[in-house]
């Protein structure tokens, strides 16, 4: 009694379960496949990331004074990659797979730029381990546009 036809029957009366047509509103009778996440979410992520990129870039240009001048370049690299990939995030909703593209770029921003900001601010390269993973996420994000 657990076959595919029996699953359509009301278990108490063994009669086919059909809701009354007068009890259903016309707008609820059609089913549409809705995405689990709205692709336009990436515009909001880009907005937050853009604010952070501009703020961190401004801090790096006007306030950040490391003892070792080479860390200023590390900060500028972080800021450049952060801003460029934030601009790309704006277009994520219009890609074939927006969540893959947006997710990979966001991961790259956090792992690569975030690591570079940390290394520059603390002036210690021992925190640089996640940076290559962020770079790989950037590459994978751009490559995802091929498929």
UniProtKB/TrEMBL annotation:
Keywords: Membrane, Transmembrane, Transmembrane helix
Subcellular location field: Membrane
Residue numbers spanned by region Disordered: 1-32
Bilayer topology: Multi-pass membrane protein
Keyword Nuclease appears in the UniProt entry: no
Cellular component GO terms held in the UniProt record: membrane
TM annotation in the entry: 41-62, 100-120, 127-145
Coiled coil regions, renumbered to chain: none
UniProt keyword Transmembrane helix present: yes
InterPro entries: DUF423 (IPR006696)
Protein name, as recorded: Transmembrane protein 256 homolog
Protein encoded by which gene: LOC109709561
